[in-house]
Amino acid sequence: MIHNRIHNFNAGPAALPLPVLQEIQQTFLNFQGSGMSITEISHRSIWFDDVINDAIERTKRLLKLDDQYEVLFLQGGASMQFCMIPLNFLSDGKSADYINTGTWSTKAIKEAQIQNKPIKVVASSEDENYCYIPKNVSFNGDAAFVHLTSNNTIKGTQFSELPDTNNIPMVIDMSSDIMSRPLDMSNIGMIYAGAQKNIGPAGVCMVIIRKDLLALCPDHIPTMLNYSTYANKKSMYNTPPCFSIYTIQLVLKWLEDTIGGLEQMDALNREKGNLLYDFIDNSKFYSATAKKDSRSLMNVTFKLKDDSLEKSFVDKAFEKGLGGLKGHRSVGGCRASIYNATRMDAINALISFMKDFEQKL
Ligand SMILES: Cc1ncc(COP(=O)(O)O)c(C=O)c1O
């Protein structure tokens, strides 16, 4: 353990790369020779302009985005997007298709229904408590977009491949797997992600939006809920969350310069996830809760054969410096969130603790 830090398996806010935290610490009192902290400088200053420009450029390079896409930073979390998406893209009575794979998709669906938008839920895994990702989904040809959650943080399921939507643009909640793997953007109209899992601290939501979707945003909706406002003013119509955006910039720098990009990140994530799932699959004491072909490489959900031992498991793990292993309060069980910043040594420490816990019973 470095600097008395624990192995952090929290689902979000979650672990950030140590070099990023160290750089924040070093620059905190005097940012770029300004004599001020990043939390004190003006968002209209050259210092912050460099930060946001670099964050946008790095996002474009990492995801290989072409000029069709704008990178925006909004507040209100990913949850705000649930209402903004139908508000902006379904103003003219159009319908959209939604895939329901758990709590977050359900919330997104609810926000469209509250607005009386004629959306259709075209697939759902509710019948099996959201432990799988629906396959071979058929979409409605007249849908303005298809909404889905690429990684289900609570249930620990993930689309290993995005569905073929027959050219209908996808709008994807990637809060818990953005920047974890390369993406084929050819059919993606919009991505959004609350930063606090894989790319930064809470307080900012990254939105990557294609210009044809931006063109759908109507004038008659509130200014702060209109994507055009952010696109027209480089996310600075009002004061943006400067510190959160700065942290994102550093995380993206780490991803590009230290990790080497999304292919390399993907390989590392697969190595970590496979090691942990293999251990669980070979155990008679622990069992994974998501179906094998739908498992998330970001959130590994599992149970103990005897669930009365779960509290003791989580408490003892914490004593040993392994934090955040309790499952989401809505589902129970255990969950190890192993986002980009979680290193292989954390996975090894977890597996060794899991073996120990079983043996000492
Ligand atoms: C997949 C997903 N979508 C949306 C949210 C909600 O994000 P926020 O708290 O930023 O509104 C979360 C939060 O855990 C999430 O995991």
What attributes characterize this protein structure?
globular, 361 residues, binds pyridoxal-5'-phosphate, 7-stranded mixed sheet, alpha/beta
What does this 3D model show about the protein?
- This protein is of the alpha/beta class and 361 residues long.
- The chain is built from ten helices and 14 strands.
- It has a seven-stranded mixed beta sheet with strand order 2-10-9-8-5-3-4, with helices on both faces. Strands 11-12-14 form a three-stranded antiparallel beta sheet, with helices on one face. A two-stranded parallel ribbon has the order 1-13.
- α8 (262-281) runs parallel beside α10 (344-359).
- The longest helix is centred in the last third of the chain and has 20 residues, at 262-281.
- The structure holds pyridoxal-5'-phosphate (PLP).
- Pyridoxal-5'-phosphate (PLP) binds at residues 12, 77-79, 104, 149, 153, 173, 175-176, 194.
In short:
Helices cover about 35% and strands about 15% of the residues. The chain has helices at about 20-25, 45-60, 75-90, 105-115, 210-215, 225-230, 240-260, 260-280, 310-320, 345-360; strands at about 5-10, 70-75, 95-100, 120-125, 145-150, 150, 155-160, 170-175, 190-195, 205-210, 285-290, 300-305, 320-325, 335.
| Annotation, overall tally of beta strands | 14
Question: Measured on Cα atoms, how large is the radius of gyration?
Answer: 21 Å
Structural class computed from helices and strand pairing? alpha/beta
Helix fraction bin: 25-40%
Q: State the distance separating the first and last CA atoms.
A: 26 Å
Strand content: 15-25%
Integer average pLDDT: 97
Broad shape: globular
Strand order of the largest sheet: 2-10-9-8-5-3-4
The major beta sheet can be summarized as: 7 strands, mixed
What series of H and E elements makes up the topology?
EHHEHEHEEEEEEEHHHHEEHEEH
| Hetero ligands | pyridoxal-5'-phosphate
Uncertain residue ranges: none
| Count of DSSP H/I helices | 10
